[in-house]
Structure prediction request, 217 residues.
Amino acid sequence: MSSHAYKTLLSPHESVLVLIDHQPRMLAGGSSGERETLCNNVAGLARTANAFGVPTVLTGIAPEAFGGTLLQELTDVFRDRRVISRTLINAWADRGVRDAVLATGRRQIIIAGLWSEVGVVLPALSALEEGREVYVVADASGGTSAEAHQLGLQRVTQAGGVPLTWLQLLGEFQRDWAGEETHAAVEAILHAHGGAWGRGVGMGRDGAVRGTERDAS
Prediction:
């Protein structure tokens, strides 16, 4: 494993994950992609954060009165985690959410949510305005249309935010297939949520060799 710490890469020791409005009503109103795929990606992201010990802040729009409880893909992973209820559309403007994020002391703020054009864009822009480092997990977020989703991501990017996928995040966290501490959890996550590629990945030194041989065949 390389001993060099690349500061531009996302690190599980420097990151905090904020999951915003992954609720049934919000999911039903989205049409930027396949809902089943989105739920799979949300599950992969949640399990990745959990496997690497990344602090995760959960929030929803009035879960009991409006948006509904969080998706099962999240409650299965974060069983006892408090969900911060909001009425503010901009999660960063909610004191409970903002304080919970800042209390972690992490500099890399990773956001995913519904809907991209409001639930993701507003807090991302607000955190960026404060000079913070913001990343958006694009494929664990969704908008009311494909255009709304893409334009939302574009606005965040133009303001200095960085879009990425949940698999990209996992790769930056893991960095070395021979990493003993998390390799079993990562292998399970990839097998369950990484599609055909994830199911074909072999972990550890021997697994990396097997994967290379399969790609070459």
Summary: The longest strand covers residues 15-20.
